[in-house]
Amino acid sequence: MKARVQELIQCGDKLFSERFPLLTLWQTFAENFYPIRADFTRSRYISEEFASYLMTGRPVLAHRELTNALSSILRPRGMQWFKPATDNEDVNNDPNSAKWLDNVGLTMRRVFADRRSQFYRATKEGDADYVLTGQCVIEPRLNAQRNGMLYRTWHLRDAVWAENSDGEIDTVHRKWMISPRQLCQIARGAGWPLHQDIERAARDNPYGTATNGQPSSASSRVKCRAIVIPADEYDSYGKDDSGNARKYNSKLPFVSVVIDEDHQTILEETPQRKLGYVIPRWVTIGGWSQYAYSPTAVVALPEGRMLQQMTLMLLEIGAKILDPPMKAVGDAIAGGINLYAGAITWVDPDYDERTGAVLEPMQFKPEGLQWGLDREEKIHQLINEAFYLNVLNLPQYEGKEMTAYEVSERMKEYIRRATPLFEPMDTEYNGKLCDDTFDTLFYNGAFGSPLDIPEPLRGREIEFKFQNPLVQAEEEQRLKSFQQLSQMLGMAMQLDPSLAADVDIDTAFRDAVPGTGAPAKWMRDKDDADQVKQQQRQAQQADQMAARLGAAGEQVSRVATAAENVGKASTALQDAGLVGG
Q1: Helix, strand, or coil here: 580?
Q2: Which residue has the higher pLDDT, 579 or 211?
Q3: CB under 8 Å to 84, separation ≥6 — which residues?
Q4: Mutual angle of helices 119-133 and 295-322, in 10-degree steps
Q5: Which of 31, 106, 254, 454 is the most exposed place for a label (fewest CB within 10 A)?
């Protein structure tokens, strides 16, 4: 058992050793843009000032603004920002399938909104790490009571991973420092075999108490290692007590292992269907590293450093202009120079000031200060561009009233600039969070019995479509296109009414409706709508037929009446002897 534990830990230690140089880069990023996370290579006191070394907080604010924008754009409150679906629209439109998918979406939204799941807390921390370093580590799993989901964001310092031949992450090692009390709580629910020293520590120092304002020391916490590796590779690690290779048979693709490093004990070996971690990566360099990079921090770092230096320099220049150093004739000053309010500086009465003032301020030209302020403003703009803050808002305009065409062009430009930024995050970040949450809930019965799944959905993979302000902007653009098409069609039909047949009004109208913000339930299903239209057409045709028949009947009646009148006139003429019988 110990040999198996040691080999697993050694594999992880090698990954940590190879990743260590990257921590210095992350530490530099954090010190400039996210000071509260600047503990990649050092420990800090809980009372320590996080940013006392910074001259200006503008780079930190830029990081904060983009972090907040990710949550408001990718996971907006009050909006159904995701929708379960399949890759087959016929299945999605099936009434029973749509009802089951809607129930899945409603259940998942309740899970995300549940305060105990800590979803928004975890994603907020993850967004900050993602903007800073280009990646984050979020673990979605069942809570200790197994009656709900729990989301945790782990420090990047404590997690390493490796890729398979397809470039997908399939191995994760995570260092886990946990208090004895917390470990005992988890062990009781999971049935982990804890060492007696841990149980004793849980009684004597259950909280891993901090001392002298420092975080809890390593000696007061239990050193564990959480590992997820492919099941076929787990068979190749370690030997049993007899020295034979130990085999671990599992039909599932991954194995989760929790190790008590202090006592060289395996606490848990659990097969699982998924990796168990969501690790979105922003910009990767193929064949170079399994770790991603943040294009924002890489570009903004030199500007941030320059801004700190320039701010310090401008403060020094401003202080010299407002409170300049003094120039004095040493022999003419008696008792030293006093420059505080109400002070007196004594001067030799025999000094002749015609040779120059005995005491005067040194002169500095303020033009350099203005140049520095202008340059500082330019650096602010560059930092905003590095953090894509210029992309988050609609393009600027001159303030005059815009035409519909100008509004349309601004919307197109906004979509063109923002889509490359946020579209990959929907797939890499939100998509994986939703996938892992769905799988965990599905295999724990949160959506009911598998027998309740409608027949068209069985065997199909559930994917997620996302709704956010960027998608909404695209839908509003379709609405404006429909309005322009309607105006153009109206003008064209004045010249040739048959041109109406060139436009598929039904399709155009349905594509434009989402841009109005109207709820989807306001729209009938397409098949139902087609059936209603068919009934209306049939009713209209029946009315037209009845109208034609009525007109024909009226004409026949008129003819019959005329014939009757002719017959009566003929009889009258015969009776009068005017015509022959």
Answers
A1: coil
A2: 579
A3: 101, 104, 105, 108, 438, 462, 463, 464
A4: 80
A5: 106
* Sign of the alpha-carbon torsion through 216, 222, 228, 234: positive
Cβ partners under 8 Å of residue 549, min gap 6:
none
Q: Are 515 and 476 in contact (CB under 8 A)?
A: yes
**Mean pLDDT value across residues 232-255:** 70
Structure tokens, 214: 């420092």
Q: Report how far Cα 346 is from the mean position of its chain's Cα atoms.
A: 69
Q: Count Cα neighbours of 257 within 13 Å in the Cβ-side half-sphere.
A: 30
Determine the residue type at 509: F
With a CB cutoff of 8 Å and minimum separation 6, the contacts of 184 are: 194, 198, 199, 202
Extents of the domains making up the chain:
326-361, 468-523, 527-581
E strand or H helix at 146, and its extent? none
Distance between CA atoms of residues 474 and 461, nearest Å: 27
Residue type (1 letter), 342: G
Report pLDDT digits (tens) over 2-34.
778 889 999 999 999 999 999 999 999 999 999
Question: What is the chain's length?
Answer: 581
**Measured between alpha carbons, how far is 37 from 127 in angstroms, rounded to an integer?**
13
pTM of the model: 0.78
CA 348 to chain centre: 73
Task: Compute the C-alpha angle 484/486/492, nearest 5°.
Answer: 105
C-beta of residue 69 within 8 angstroms of C-beta of residue 392: yes
- pLDDT at site 234: 84
Return d(Cα 53, Cα 51) in angstroms, integer.
5
Cβ contact 352:344 at 8 Å: no
3-state DSSP helix/strand/coil % of the chain, to nearest 5 = 55, 15, 30
Q: Which of 108, 221, 230, 96 is nearest to 161 (CA)?
A: 230
Radius of gyration of the chain (CA): 39
Residue pLDDT, tens place only, 347-376 = 888 888 888 888 888 887 777 788 888 899
CA–CA separation, 511 and 476 (whole Å): 10
